[in-house]
Amino acid sequence: MKTMTQRVPGRFFARMGVLATATAAAVTVLGAGVASAADKPLDFKGSFPLIGEQTVSTVVHVDVPESATIGQTVSVPFSLDADVGTAAADGLRLVGVTTLGGSIDASVTVQIGDQPVALPVSLPIPDTAIPDEGTLAFTAEGSVDFTVPEGVPAGEATTSVDPEAVTHVTTDASDPSLANFDVNLALDPADQDTVLGTTQIS
Length: 202
Prior knowledge:
By secondary structure, the protein is an alpha+beta fold. It contains three helices and eleven strands.
């Protein structure tokens, strides 16, 4: 679904994170009925070392269940395509990074009537080799287990990606400050449609 200078290399992960996390959470809360496929494109922006602000394009792929039951536990698979662009990849290459990984902490909000339910989501960033040239793109895949909480009112639930996330990045950089760092990021532009889908809760 945008910080500190040396943390920049991981910004794009966080951006991807927002999407993936939102996807995961949305799908989890939504549960078990017939699913409808959602392919949600979202852009994020962050400042990279030397090259400044760059746009990262992401697409979240998820099958949003049409219905779920209160108290039900579901496990929903999801995937996230991320393209950080050539300029960002050049920046990583410039500082000597050849591989990266880590995790993303983000969240989605499930709105049921006038009651919002915040769902934290943590996603692994796969170990990814930085290509010798060109853009850096990868697909993150995983699943999230979630139990629809008791006390939630029945009705239509709308799941949306929250606009902020934190990426915990690990790389093979020789500089310790670039080998393990956190990056805060935000959706850009902020008015993008972040709705992943709706689910009927009963």
